[in-house]
Write a structure and sequence with these properties.
Helix content is 48%, strand content 18%. With 673 residues, the chain is α+β, with helices and mostly antiparallel strands. It has a 7-stranded mixed β-sheet with strand order 12-24-23-22-13-20-21, sandwiched between helices. Strands 14-19-18-17-16-15 form a 6-stranded antiparallel β-sheet. A 4-stranded antiparallel β-sheet has the order 5-11-6-9, with no helix packed on it. Strand 1 and strand 2 form a beta hairpin. The protein is elongated, with a radius of gyration of 34 Å. The two termini are 30 Å apart. The N terminus is likely disordered.
Amino acid sequence: MAHKHKNKASHQDTCCSLEDNKTVTNNQTDCCSSESDTENHSGHDHDHDHSNGGEGVLKMFFPSIVSFVLLLVALLFDNYFQQSWFNGWIRIVWYVIAYIPVGFPVLKDAFQSIRSGTVFSEFFLMSVATIGAFGIGQYAEGVTVMLFYAIGELFQVMAVQKAKSNIKSLLDERPDVANVVQGQTVVAIKASEVTIGAIIELKPGEKLALDGKLLSDYATFNTAALTGESKPDSKSKGETILAGMINLNSIARIEVTTAFKDSKLSKILEMVQDATAKKAPTELFIRKFAKIYTPIIVYLAIAICLVPILFVETYVFKEWLYRALIFLVVSCPCALVISIPLGYFGGIGAASKNGILFKGSTFLDTMAAIQVVVMDKTGTLTKGVFKVQKVVSIGIPEADLVNYSAAIEAKSTHPVGSAILEYANNATNKTLVSDVTEISGLGLKGLVDGKEILVGNPKLMNKFNIDYDKQLDTIPFTIIVVAIDKKYSGYFLIADEIKEDAKTAIESLHQINIKTILLSGDNQAVVSAVAKELNIDEAFGDLLPENKVEKVAALINQKLKVAFVGDGVNDAPVIALAQAGIAMGGLGSDATIETADIVIQNDQPTKIFTAIAIGRKTKQIVWQNISLAFSVKLIVLILGAGGLASMWEAVFADVGVALLAILNAVRIQRMKF
């Protein structure tokens, strides 16, 4: 599938990604009307300071302030404080000087655009409209149109910077230096030069530069950079620690397990950088539309100016030229070309703030249309860790049953044995264990404090002719039965623990009329039990990876929009097949995360609903902007062509609507999902 391929992007690409349609020159931002405009202006300087504070903002607005002051003085001289000297060529020169600070950058870009083969750009429209206004003696209106255009563009730059701030902040999350233990000393080394197996010392408040394994007994980390969750996460010796996590308490030592470029955080940043290269269909349509729309508007403006000479008895060229110029100003597609990408970028930013990474704006549209969510079980809805859920003792104290069983299981490496040991808190050092033998496929037999202990599945009891509760055979989860001195003494119920928010996730999806399906390789009884507990619509067990692919393909063949959520390597093929592939990024395999369109960093199932909500809200805002821009422009275009609208209405229809659309687009970043 073509959309799975990745475009490698640089840091600069990310910072300028929203400016695919914008070029910043001489403190003036220019809104391009097509992709080719971007290419034509690729040599422009992108290094201006567009920060929102102090000198940066003053520097941005300085040309507009100069133009505004000169325009204001001219209007006062024209209308309120008439001066005999403010006439003729002096008046014209004054307005020209007022025009230059805001008009020259646009004229320059229009010229460069024409030289490179793109005549019908927004720069061209604004240049023709304002120069035309000067040509018919409407100096004040010519300056005003360009001034408002310039101010509107500057507000767009500020909106873009705000929209990018959530995602750009991720670029600062990856430390460049790591403190590596070398013998008795600690040396600061570039993170990119640290080798696998090196030991990093992490002080409280410091951020980890590479993925690794905790060597200290215990440590607490802030994981917000990766998961979007501010709640501290406690880790024990041997657990995985990821780059970007911040140590919160005592000094911790971590053994590096992954190269700098392969760390989870590096992959996240790469995903973010690639995200803006994949445009949503609506965004691509608007770009193509602008290429056709702009020349049509120019030809219509010419027609408005010249065609009436054939039909109007008292034709006045100056009057019809004025109408044509209004038509040109209104027609500028800036509100569409900027606010729509800004809306999608805002959606990606809002998602990253919630620990969800969209690999492109196209997937926001996809999630908005999802009808069915198909989920894997282990690692997606469950924690992927075996735990003792229930202990029943028969004829002996429960503590004795646990201790005897744990003493035997301490000699095993099976995950079930580990679960029993964890439940017993590894308290086996006070018992004398001997003659432990493994009975393949059944369990363990041994002596604990002189007592014969059998620990295993019900088949082990059958092998030694020990009576036990036959109802245990009907329980779908893993049952470990214990016999002491050939007498049935109780059992452990062991199961993969369901995630705390799994039920809420399913309920939330049902509330927005999304069907839920569970696919798993586990036996059908276990899968059905989990589905029943979570109220999942359909559940299928005993599936191989190819069977999951067949199930999802069948849904797609029914013309349904399908999202698949998984975490294991075996989920990668079906994630690639679904219209929206979602990976659990915390526990998920690298192959699955690489293949997925969307990555949930904290592994919470409720984030599936959040991703859909963000997708739907983004699409809603984008279409609100399209409707607003088209409706207002159409009304003013008709009024302008009929001589019922002045240049002031034209300014509102262009700059005013653009600002309203931008404010609407950035609104998504303040929303709580």
